[in-house]
């Protein structure tokens, strides 16, 4: 079982949190903070597994994480999951994000956390792995997006226009800020289907 | 229509959407909390609109805020509204918000049942999908019961997308509603062979998860899984199956034999490391299960170890880590094959990666021998010195102790060395394992008699040194060793060199800063010391010296008498009186030493930790029967000193009848005495029960203390364990030389003797003679102790409920509750409502239980036999893993299942008919009852009723999770014989300077209360918000009536001008009490107290923002200090959070920073520090008056702690 999936940046600011066990908001924040503390002080070239934090889970649980550019992707899992399998799953997740957002970067996740949730929901459900095939995931996401667009139809157009204008006028235009793209190519993993 | 829609969306486009919110938060880094609270206000406005798109947008934003730590439970109802939108776009937003914020405690969750059912049967697969996904996160037992059947149907949906989701969610349903497992299992098994690989994978996933917890019920699936394993190409599925086999093999060794070959093949052939690793893991599990008597598997072990070595040597740290992890599993059964890789593992100890070092440490446990123990521990000690983080250091500490104490100190050759290691470990500051070290010290000193003299000298040095006392604030800190030190010095005081000096050290005033349980031991052992000093002095004829010691005791003991700890106080005052009495006797020149030391005569023997539990229950004694019928529920637990030595010993059944009468008390006291008599670690104040130990002196043999001359007898100061390593080496060298000499002699004698005998250059473990002849006293066990060890299972394991025999055929009563469509025949069969179904399905179960049991026994036997035959047949077939026999049992079962299912349906119909025809009267009656209870529930639940709470926030996002102390924020306002008023005052986020007062009115009389009106006298500073047009003197009506015994809540808003001071408002509640005899007008006066804390709103704050706030310098400062606080820091913080609406920003040890914000935007920052018995609170706030008032209030709260 996967107990929680967290994404936060190098400063510990959460970009996505998904808990598959109920915790209060305060505990969730504590877990995020604790996990960040554990993960962020580790060097780049050490192993990606960590014996769990105190808050989440206990001895049976492990943190499995990957660090891409400015973001940490952390999965907290129990012993029924294969460690290397989960590492691959994180890879699949990031690659899927890359496909859906077209060259994903941190800002995509910051501004579209709802979409990230939707993508995640096609991969992991209630803490169990639902689908590992990237093409299948992307197909489902595309179909849902299409459905969404057709629903918005006429009524959605003005809203989209306004949001485009808003994006134009604001001083902070996402793409201008130079945050390194999430590097996706990770060579050291043998292919895994 | 279209125009209206466009208009709606034009209105809407100027609302903030999620992106705007995120952008806004990023642009308001300085006042993020304020900005967010503004946004929340906007969201609240948006939620009030009718346009579903606006609502969805608001909920979407709330989901984001939830991630940032804001409680959004107040919007639960709005979330449900959005969930029920017809458009997929909104529905998805709603379900996402629900999955992030709903949990079992969310009360509106029961409103979702029908909506979810509708979505599950929606024609659009994405509606169904999104409902399943959401449900998987917040399914409750009720939802699981009501929806199990609908989900079951979805498992055979035409679309694989739905099928796989339905299969996966079944696991969650099983967890919440275990009764559904058996009816659903046949279909789940079917899905293992689904044509779609995704569905198949999901089914494997679920069954593996189930089987992991209760493997034995799934053994019969082994052939099916075996077939899958040999045919599947999906690595995910393979890994899961292989992991499952790892869990199954311990139950069925023959399965292991069958597995080894295909697994070995996979190991050789696969290129995927993850698969390889899991294969190795399962092979290891197989080998462990086969460990007895299969010699020809050494090749497999070699293969595994060899592959693991490759992993460990890999440059990829992940593989290295996993290699070590798997290696530690082999270690348990085949330590020899791991030991040959010692070099590699020691190398990993120096790895820069902490995770890898920890894994290597685990392995070290199996690597030690008598020969290398000292060397390895020395290495670890250097690591201890170098370690940066306390967690890693603590881990090292426990490992050192584990390694040394393993299998009854098997590998320790020199206990003086071990004691000095322990003493060295006490220099670690900030460790959490003080009690571990203490336990070891006690254990060694008690069980190794020869070491006592040395131990006592070391312990007295510890007592004398100051550094341990200094760290006494931490829980479980290093000061725990003083517990052991004091006890050892007291108990074995005859070995002390300078008892008088030690006595003085133990009576120092600073001792009173230690935790209570340690002080208690101090007090008790001071007397033991005193007794032995008295004896010495009297024997030497120094009467004056003896009197001086007594005087010292009389002078110093009062400091313990004043202790706030009950145990310390009690012991100290008792002993003080005793010593005073002795003093009197001494003044008359009466020799007292004999009598005083008789208090502590006898010897304490170690008792095994589980001894108590294993005392057999005498025949005819029923421990579960009540002695007296219980009077009340209140539990009284015996207070006893917390046992440092072994804690799990005294777990007694917790539920005891509360005090009944004197007789009962006396009996219980007697029982306790008995219990204590059997517990040598209970330090007694009376000598009598001890005597029997005295009668059997030297239970085994008296230890021969062979003092090694190379060890100095008296070690000045604290020893360095290193010296022992050298000494040990020398000693061994000498021994070796001697042996060699002897050997040579022998050789010369039998020159042509057997070569093999003498050609062993290395000495084996057994050759090393221990430095001291030690006698490790075995722990005592009660006579005829039961050899059982079954008590390791956790009774609270949620997975226990899923331990269900799946092979047994389904009984009628086990079918899932089926929800019928109401619209077909609503009027005819109202009892098909949810609760009725529940009753139906539950009732027969109880009735049939006995009957079922009998049947079950029969069937079980039959089924088991059949199953066993099938499995045996499969297992006994010779290797070529031909799946030929495999499907036989499975198809068989499928058919069984099908016929059963049919049978069920028939039965279901039959039951339905049953329901319809007979006993219409009873039905009606039941229905009525139900309605009544429903009605009651409703009125009690006090939903944010539309009339009363129209414009008010129900709960302003104030997280109330931290209710550690079981308290309510509602305080008593006023009461009389008719009505009781309690109230809670909360700041309102919505509007500056407003507070919401929630008043709960409880009708305690037998009359109905109506026409209730609340009138409050406004002050200059505080005004009640009244309906428009009403004057200041009018009362405000309470929007409900109260039938007898019912309570309900009404909320009122007050506007406050200045919030820096607390204030009180007078008010009156007037009402009409009406009963059978008539109606009377009644009144109740009350005083509303607005404390400064009630103007605060719990607002989370990040530590960086907090630091900036403090640095800004425009806050004024003030502080208070409260003494005599015994409460744990955690609870203390919880109390402050709860009563004063603060949130913890950061907590370090016994120091925490907290933050809150007033409704008018004052920042309040606190620094709470816990000292020994006191708490100091430093506050900073933008308003000094507010701060000082707040601190006063806090002081009052803390003083109650």
UniProtKB/TrEMBL annotation, chain A:
Keywords: Cytoplasmic vesicle, Golgi apparatus, Membrane, Protein transport, Transport. It is a peripheral membrane protein. Residues 1-147 form the AP complex mu/sigma subunit domain. GO terms for cellular component: AP-3 adaptor complex; cytoplasmic vesicle membrane; Golgi apparatus. InterPro entries: AP_complex_ssu (IPR016635), AP_mu_sigma_su (IPR022775), APS3 (IPR027155), Clathrin_sm-chain_CS (IPR000804), Longin-like_dom_sf (IPR011012). GO terms for biological process: Golgi to vacuole transport; intracellular protein transport; vesicle-mediated transport. It is found in: Cytoplasmic vesicle membrane; Golgi apparatus. Part of the AP-3 complex, an adaptor-related complex which is not clathrin-associated. The complex is associated with the Golgi region as well as more peripheral structures. It facilitates the budding of vesicles from the Golgi membrane and may be directly involved in trafficking to lysosomes. In concert with the BLOC-1 complex, AP-3 is required to target cargos into vesicles assembled at cell bodies for delivery into neurites and nerve terminals. Belongs to the adaptor complexes small subunit family. Adaptor protein complex 3 (AP-3) is a heterotetramer composed of two large adaptins (delta-type subunit AP3D1 and beta-type subunit AP3B1 or AP3B2), a medium adaptin (mu-type subunit AP3M1 or AP3M2) and a small adaptin (sigma-type subunit APS1 or AP3S2). Interacts with AGAP1. AP-3 associates with the BLOC-1 complex. This is Adaptor related protein complex 3 subunit sigma 1. It comes from Gorilla gorilla gorilla (Western lowland gorilla). The lineage of its organism: Eukaryota, Metazoa, Chordata, Craniata, Vertebrata.
